[in-house]
Amino acid sequence: MSFTGKATYTGGVAMPEIAEDVSDLVSIVSPAETPLLDALGDPMRMARSTVHEWLDDALLPNFDAVAGTITDASEQTTFEVAHVERFRPGDQVRLGDDQEMLLVSGVDTAANTITVSRSYGDTTRGTLAAGKSLRILGNAALEGDAADAARFSVRTRKQNYTQIFTATVEVSGSELATRQIGVTDEMNYQKQLRLRELLRDLENCVINGTASAVTPAGSSSVRRTMNGLLSLIQTNVLSPGAGGFPADDSLTEEQLSEALRRIWMECGSSPDLILVNAASKRSINQFASTSRRYQPADETFRDLVNVFESDFGVCRIVLSRYVPTGTLLLLDSSRIEVLPLAGRSFFYKPLASNGDRDAGQMIGEYTLELRNENAHGIIRGFTA
Q: pLDDT digit of tens for each residue in the chain (384 aa)?
């Protein structure tokens, strides 16, 4: 019989067994979980450009603060304010936490000042001071008066950039032909490993990523990176002892409640996720340590807090190993989405074979959309 190059088998002849006892199982212990991505869930939309944009809007503010120099704290009726455009004649204004009510009678946009009637409604007079808050209760219009000038908020356009995540897969022809222990298809096995790594990297970039300061949109010579949560959240960034925030070096219940209160005061939303690392999670677990009670028959010690409920919302605590030490994020998950560029969610692309091997690329392109960044917050700088 001529040689064909193919294997033939004679019936009834048993193949010899290899003298090895190896379990048909490959065990992996490397961290691959993505708790934040799991908590956010799959997006309902896709990004349509490498520069992804969205619009934020807000109601007209009803608060401000005294500014400039005060010469007569008890009698002065004309004074500078931080944002004069927020006031109209007829506004009732409370002076800080005092009982005194003010009635705005004039607004000078050129001088950035307002003129008021002090002790309106026979309220007890307070003290003017630079930095003191002014809370606008509402406007009282004159009967039959003409309409005043229209006021409106301006929508702001926010943006982020898509980031390409890739990993190359390559398996030799010999490896593909060899019978493997615990693996039926080496190429598919390698694809699964690289996909786990890319998902892990995506979560890390969603939390910690930073866009380039030069050419952030990228080019053929500049890599494009997305801004993560820690880069996009700018308003409610709190540190122990700064701006009246509780000065404890270690994370406390008072700090967490105060941060939630400040976010609640800032916007009409409340966070529902607290993203922490292991050390911060243990600190939160200790909030209830002094009030735990055990019976003599109890055989289980529990030291776990998974939900933080306060006057300002109910927050699920999510543990992620990628949150930096001494940092905690307060997130409104309804305003966060991790979007793939259209047609670029993770997929496998075969590469041209230029030898005795099969090769391909795992590719995905994603960006982070963080709407209304002042609805979220960060506590940083504490000792966990």
A: 666 566 665 555 555 555 566 666 666 667 788 999 999 999 999 999 999 999 999 899 999 999 989 999 989 999 999 999 999 999 999 999 999 999 999 999 999 999 999 999 999 999 999 999 999 999 999 999 999 889 888 899 999 999 999 999 999 998 888 888 778 888 999 999 999 999 999 999 999 999 999 899 988 888 999 999 999 999 999 999 888 888 888 899 999 999 999 999 888 788 999 999 999 999 998 887 777 777 788 777 777 889 999 999 899 999 999 999 999 999 999 999 999 999 999 999 999 988 899 999 999 999 999 999 999 999 999 986
Strand ranges inside 122-277, DSSP E: 133-139, 156-161, 163-172, 237-238, 273-276
Considering only CA atoms, which of 228, 314, 305, 311 is closest in space to residue 262? 311
Q: Is 138 helix (H, G, I), strand (E, B) or coil?
A: strand
- Domains recognised in the chain with CATH numbers: 35-56+158-290+302-380 (3.90.1690), 63-139 (2.40.33)
The answer to whether the beta carbons of residues 316 and 274 sit under 8 Å apart is yes
Are residues 199 and 362 in contact, defined by beta-carbon separation less than 8 angstroms?
no
Q: How far apart are CA 266 and CA 371, in angstroms?
A: 14
